[in-house]
Design a protein that fits this description.
Length: 372
């Protein structure tokens, strides 16, 4: 009887776990072999993307990833299959830095989808500088500080900053960036040659895996690399807060891509004649909208002559980008009492408002996730 009761108790204790699937599985420990495999995959994917951006730095960065994978394989040797946490300090630091490069490359591949070539190239330059600086980093620590990515306040991967006048907030994400027993990490910004930038970030919040920053006046940023150097401290027994190896991250500062929108608006009008109504298509009115740059809306009124009773409108448009290539839409037709709105290449929208006889070009939601 006692055995039966004990069996029943054990059954009820175990029943929830027997009848309910596990909420999640613990990820396997990160090994050097895993990092090498991910580097090779990232290198291949970057080479494929480089074929579509022949004038970018992606090809050279892809080759750099291949070299980094070879170097890491030689450094780790027989320790490649071991968890990174238990290998020698210098090899461990190299593996963590290589893993950060993998994550930054994966973020680029995802965030650059749908970007204009100019933006994708600027993002590629940020990635190239990141790979070069992170892979060339030195120094090791028991708890290695590493920056795995840069992101916007709403957690989008960030590669390019616009030199606009508004306050700009972003965050560095990684591991071992802060010890609550020590003072805040020090973050300084330089250009690609190591010269201190005039615009320095302010630290607004810190966690071990996140440092939040703000730039008070981004309009003063100079185009080019914006390299962030993070020096943190770690509390150690008997020696207090010791300075840790530097962690770095890179953004690219670039002006907004400039675009020109030309249009052709055709009106079909109702004209009385011979006791019946005749529809007449007027010659197209052509022109060019004010230059589109940044996030503002531009507009232009259209003077329609000789069309007292419009029946319908049709509009065509061509977008010409700063690098010279262009793309066209239309013609798109609609009855005269209704407006026309159409998406344009480059994340723009074109609208015709017949009530005020004006064209508007507005930026749509930014389809290039890596630009802020």
């Amino acid at each position: 009887m006692r055995v039966a009761r004990l069996g029943a108790i054990l059954f009820w204790l175990l029943a929830p776990s027997l009848g309910t699937p596990a909420a999640g599985q613990i990820a396997p420990r990160l090994t050097g072999s895993t990092v090498i495999d991910q580097l090779q995959t990232a290198q291949h994917d970057l080479a494929v993307r480089a074929a579509g951006l022949p004038h970018s730095s992606l090809g050279a960065t892809s080759q750099r990833l291949a070299s980094l994978a070879d170097a890491l394989r030689k450094t780790l040797g027989s320790d490649a299959a071991k968890p990174i946490e238990i290998i020698a300090a210098d090899a461990r630091a190299n593996a963590y830095r290589a893993y950060a490069v993998v994550q930054r490359t994966q973020a680029y591949l995802e965030a650059s989808k749908g970007c204009l070539d100019a933006d994708a190239n600027a993002m590629a330059d940020a990635l190239a500088t990141t790979v070069e600086l992170v892979a060339g980093g030195t120094g090791s620590a028991k708890l290695q500080p590493v920056i795995n990515g840069v992101e916007t306040p709403d957690h989008r991967p960030l590669f390019v900053l616009r030199n606009s006048g508004k306050d700009t907030a972003f965050a560095l994400v990684g591991v071992n960036l802060f010890d609550a027993q020590c003072e805040d990490p020090v973050v300084t910004a330089t250009d690609g040659q190591g010269q201190r930038q005039n615009v320095q970030p302010s630290v607004t919040g810190v966690l071990p895996n996140r440092i939040e920053l703000t730039l008070a006046d981004a309009s003063q940023l100079q185009s080019g690399s914006y390299v962030l150097h993070v020096v943190s401290r770690l509390k150690a027994f008997l020696v207090g807060c010791a300075v840790q190896p530097e962690a770095v991250a890179t953004l690219q500062v670039a002006a907004p891509a400039k675009m020109s929108v030309s249009y052709a608006l055709t009106a079909t009008c109702s004209t009385p004649g011979g006791g019946q109504v005749v529809e007449q298509v007027l010659p197209a009115i052509t022109g060019t909208m004010p230059e589109v740059s940044g996030s503002g809306t531009v507009s232009q009124r259209i003077a329609l002559q000789g069309c007292a009773e419009p029946v319908s409108y049709a509009i065509s448009a061509k977008v010409t980008f700063g690098d010279g290539h262009n793309a066209s839409i239309g013609p798109i037709s609609q009855i005269a009492s209704a407006g026309i709105t159409a998406g344009l290449p480059g994340g723009l929208s074109l609208s015709w408002d017949p009530s005020v006889r004006a064209l508007f070009v507005r930026p749509a939601a930014n389809s290039c996730k890596g630009v802020y």
